[in-house]
Amino acid sequence: MAKEGITPRAQDYAQWYLDIVRGADLADYAEVVRGCIVFKPTGYALWEAIQRGLDDRIKATGHVNFYFPLLIPKSFLMKEAEHVEGFAPQVAEVTHAAGEKLAEPYVIRPTSETIIGYFYAKWVRSWRDLPLLGNQWANVMRWEMRPRPFLRTTEFLWQEGHTVHADHEDAERETLKILHEVYADFVEKEMALPVIKGLKTEKEKFPGALRTYCMEAMMQDGRALQAGTSHNLGQNFAKAFGIQYSDRNNQMQPAWTTSWGVSSRLIGALIMAHSDDDGLVIPPHLAPVQVVVVPIFKNDAERAAVMAAVQAITADWRPRGIRFHIDERDHLTPGFKYNEWELKGVPLRVEVGPKDIEKKSVAIAPRIAQDNINANAAAGGRKPKAFVPQQGLADQISSLLEQLQRTMYDRALRFRNEHTFEASNYDELKQGIESGFVRAWWAGSRDDEERIQEETKATIRCIPLEQPGGKGKCFYTGEEASQVAIFAKAY
RNA sequence: CGGGGAGUGGCUCAGCCUGGUAGAGCACCUGGUUCGGGACCAGGGGGUCGUAGGUUCAAAUCCUAUCUCCCCGACCA
Q1: Which nucleotides of strand B are protein-proximal, with an atom < 7 A from a CB?
Q2: Tell me, in Å, how far CA of A4 is from C1' of B22?
């Protein structure tokens, strides 16, 4: 039962995604600025919800926010060899200002390790200054060949954390803490998106990092989406920018740094992981509007009675922390509103009409199917709907929202499990990556990895932190392997 | 950035081949009847046909350039 104007997923997944973005009114194309989008209010509200959830966790783990300039001297980028090489093809440069050519061009930040490194070198003096735990919310720009709304735009919004540590162990601890306690915790609990946490291979790691940890999520077409990364930068940037400190013995030591980020791409992940052919589906924890109330009336007298009832019914919702909206528009039929709010992904709909006033009930309809709420033929619909008493409604809504949150996570996890395959040879891998993730014992080289990518379009998404243990036979080289890798096509 | 497709009211598109006063459906506005799963009738508003240049008495239509979007590839959060 696809909505008007929504291409079914099975027909064209890419078009479906674009239809959701447009239909749910999340973004507009900034067609006058190639590759950029306008975050419309509903899209930006999702970003604000993501920011809130992450910012709370970033601060709870001891970090503070700050802000560095958008423009970075071009020479800064050149100081770390791998870093320049990695980002050079993607940077935009400012060469002129005030009508004059600049002596040294600036680049528009593609990420801020370099400029922050410069200042960290000034700020860090002693072991007592460490760890230095900072984060900034910012926009960055990376010139993209093939942009897609939220998933890959030339300018995007993100947070980037940058920390300095006295030794490798502390930097490593930080890198993993962010991955587990900030990123995966947020994405799994608030976005209802199960992720696989792992290590990037040399080929896939951040340019200039010692190692990169990541979390990978599965989209409904079986492809992987990198939902966040956390880098142990080793001493690479510290050495390039001279970040050093006096240790307890008054010896100068190069420091160790980390950086980590998640971006507005998460909105794309949210859409592609949860939504259906009827439109967007937003997990209740994240939803800017969790419940929409649709009043039903035929005339002014009914309208007055119904609105009074709606006021009474919703009176205790706000104090209970339920985020809701009452759709009072009177030029649209209820049926139209149902479809519209489903398209926009609101988790729960409550209908209040004259019959409900009489029976002290309301109709309640979850955005996605729930075991305890069945399709209600009496309501003329094929969609799940239940009539429940007004008494104790706030409690029931709160618990239903929690139930929906769990259902969404479970549903996404089940989908991932059903689309994850084991491969013990190359043919099995080729077959598996057509519809999902492939787990396989891996002892190949970087060259092997590149060859596999050329031949199959799939990459090693990560070496999962959770390993089966023991040894296996590499599916590609036939050698003894001590680790399992996840292969998939990626966004 | 290479290959392919497309830009005409807010949306989906027709008109272009064969140049001659810009159309439809949906959406929007007004009024009325409706209203528990995408209402109906009547009236109305809205488009320098992506942009720039050229050909022509005359260009949405033909030519050139350019921008943007979509699909496929190489690059990436």
Answers
A1: 1-2, 11-12, 28-29, 34-39, 67-77
A2: 28
Indicate the residue among A406, A429, A453 that finishes a domain.
A406
Whichever domain contains A475, its CATH number is 3.30.110.30
Smallest CA–C1' distance to B38, residue: A336
Per-residue three-class SS string for A291-307: EEEEECCCCHHHHHHHH
Are A386 and A373 in contact, with CB atoms under 8 Å apart?
yes
In a domain, A3, yes or no: no
Mean pLDDT of each 10-residue bin along chain A, 491 residues long: 75 89 89 88 95 98 97 92 87 88 92 96 97 97 91 95 98 98 98 97 93 96 95 96 97 97 96 94 97 94 94 97 95 93 95 96 93 62 83 97 98 97 95 94 94 92 96 96 96 90
Distance B75 C1' – A469 CA (angstroms): 35
Q: Residue A32, class by beta-carbon neighbours within 10 Å (0-12 exposed, 13-18 middle, 19+ buried)?
A: exposed
What pLDDT is attached to residue A288? 96
- Domains held by chain A: number: 3
CA of A29 to C1' of B18 (A): 37
| C1' (B17) to CA (A316) span, angstroms | 67
**Structural domain that includes position A101:** 13-274
> Complex ipTM, two decimals?
0.90
Q: Which nucleotide is nearest to A357 (CA to C1')?
A: B36
Distance in angstroms (rounded) separating the CA atoms of residues A282 and A99: 47
